[in-house]
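Person: Please work through this fold.
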Amino acid sequence: MMKMNEKKEKVIIVHLNLGESDHILDDKVKEIEELVRSSFAEVEAIVIQNADTINASTYIGSGKAYEIKEMADNMEVDTILFNNELTGSQMKNLEEIIDKKIVDRTGLILDIFARRATTKEGKLQVKLAQLEYRLPRLVGFRNYLSREGAGIGTRGPGEQKLEMDRRNIQKEITQIKHQLKDSHEQRKIKSNKRKKSIMPIVSIIGYSNAGKSTILNAVVEKYSLDNKKVYSDDMLFATLDISARQIELPNGKDIIMTDTVGFVSDLPTKLIESFKGTLEEIEISDLLVIVVDSSNVDYKMQLKATTSILKDMNIKDKKVLYCFNKIDLNPEFFYDKKDEHFIKISAHKAEDIDKLIEKIQYMLYEKYRYFNILVPYSNIDTFMKLNLKLYDSEYLDEGLSAKIYIEASEVDKYKEYLR
């Protein structure tokens, strides 16, 4: 997080437009502005360069680079941020012309990840992604890393200084991969234990800043025994590591709800790969709750970005609930896809959280029914090994009387106990 006395970095955003439509261009510029804000920096100007092709040497052409230099000098800007991914030689050539720090979109996102990572594994994942990104770009990094107050693009997890020697970087990458492999095995064991448990897993996913953590916090406050909230803030990537909470539904069933890192459009594959922990939770989930900011005029783009990531991950055959959040900011919001499960809520309204939980309960247990059972005392030990949750249990002369809540198709398994 930003320190109280830390001066905000001044940034000029540069976007190379290779024939994008006005709407797509506007979406991308708005998103990169939000990413800059999430890195505690200020956007001083936005430069759009229209072109047919990418300039191999400077990405935007040397003429435009000199224009940006003059602008940056006049505005006393610290950093030039390219809303694209640059090569090491392009970064070096641009810095030689502009004489300011050059950062690209991937570097910015990695910087935000470095600020947000909290667990040991999360920090390792971020550091690995940073080092693998930096290795082919060392030629473009050396100059500005020596600048005083280097800022965006220079921070490792925990504000640690990142290695700049090629051999040391390669050695560190190998070490981190070994550490992550061990951590991955431990996480896999935990995930398998969750999957084998009788509790369904519900993953809250969606575009960054859609309100996922706020929703989970509201659910936890009312439906969880431990009342342990997750970090939430009004900026992109506020949640980076996995947050899982046990929730009790109105029907008495327990579920696990997980909050995940938010998506952005065109998230580089290397960044997706660095957060397999979050993705694995999605893969083993019984229900996906895709949260969308209904007050954002670009909600369709955000929804598309989320579903595109799921498609790339080959996530299919999952129950999906579309949750349109912040409806209090856009009461006239209309969603016309009648063939999909969806709900409109405000995470700040208790009654809407109740509706969301009821919808989740319905989707998980729509085929479940209550059945009355009577278990003879001679069979109780065998019956208890079935690990069923009992409702309204009572000990009678002839045995244990109770209700069980199971899928109707499973009732034959327990027919000897039905009454």
